[in-house]
Amino acid sequence: MILTAENTAIVLDSTADFPDAPERFPNFRVVPLYVRFGDESFRDYVDIEPAQFYERLQSAAELPTTSQPTPGDFLAAYESLGGYERILSLQISSTLSGTYGSAVTAGEMLGDGRVRVVDTRTVSASLALLALAVQRRLEQGTTDEEIDALVERYGREHYLLFTVNTLEYLQKGGRIGRAAALAGAMLNIKPILTIRDGEVVPLKKVRGAAKAFEEFKQLFEETSTDSPRLKVGIAHAAAPERMAALHELVRDVRPQAEIEIETQLGAVIGTHAGPGTVGFFWFED
Prior knowledge:
Layout: E1 8-13, H1 21-24, E2 28-31, E3 34-37, E4 40-43, H2 50-59, E5 65-67, H3 71-79, E6 86-91, H4 99-110, E7 115-119, H5 125-140, H6 144-157, E8 159-163, H7 168-172, H8 178-187, E9 189-196, E10 199-207, H9 209-223, E11 230-236, H10 240-253, E12 258-264, H11 267-273, E13 278-284
Parallel strand pairs: 1-2, 1-6, 6-7, 11-12
Antiparallel strand pairs: 3-4, 3-5, 8-9, 8-13, 9-10, 11-13
C-alpha cells in the first residue's frame, strides 16, 4: 500500500510540544497528557497554556504531577480519523512515560488494524521533527518499509541537547538524585543532557549558561553540514531570550538549515525540566 497524506493520519501526544500541528496539517491529531496541581487536573495545551503553567508554577506550594493519556483518550482520537485508511501514532519514549502503552491499548480496542504505534524513544521538538519527516514522505507517497527505515535512521542520527536552569525539577521528578541536584546548585553546574535509549543522560557538565551554549555550538558544528536538508528544532521553558540566542546560533553556523519548529515546552515537559530550560534538536533529512 502506498501511504499518502490523504489516506494516512499522524497522531502525536502533547509531549511533542507541537500544539498547532492539526492547524498546519489536516491529517494530524494531538492527544494531551495531564498535569495536576493539587486536586486540579489540566490537559496539556488544552486547559492550560505554557504561559499560564509557568506563571502558576512560580507560586505553587508543591511541584505539580503529570500523567499519561488514557486509552480512551487515544481511542477518541483514532475514531475521529475514520476517513483515513491508516494511522501512524508517534509517541514519547516508553521509558519516560506510559503514553505509548495507552496508545497500543487503544489501537487494540479499535480492532481494525489501521493503527500502528511507534515508540519514538525521544521527546519534545525532537518528536515533532520526526513527525514532520514522516509527513514529507506521506506528501510524496511512501511505504511502511520507508517509514521503518526513517524511524530507525532517526533513532541513530538525530541530535537532542538540552540544558536546565536548575536541577531541582529533574530531581523532584525522579530523573536525577538529590545529591547531584544539590552539588549542581552549589557549583552553578549546567549539565548538558540528552536522551539515549529513551533515558535522560548527561553528556557534559559545564559552569554557567554561556559555557553551555558554547558546547551546543561546538557539537552542532561537528555533527552537521550546511544544507537545506538540515532540519532544526528549538524549544524553551519561559526563556524566550535563550530560544532567540539558539535561533541566532543556527543562522550563524548553518545559514542554509531549516528551522522547522520553535516552541515553548508545555506543562508536562515543563514540570520535569523547569523554567529556563532550553532544548536544541537537529537531523539531516
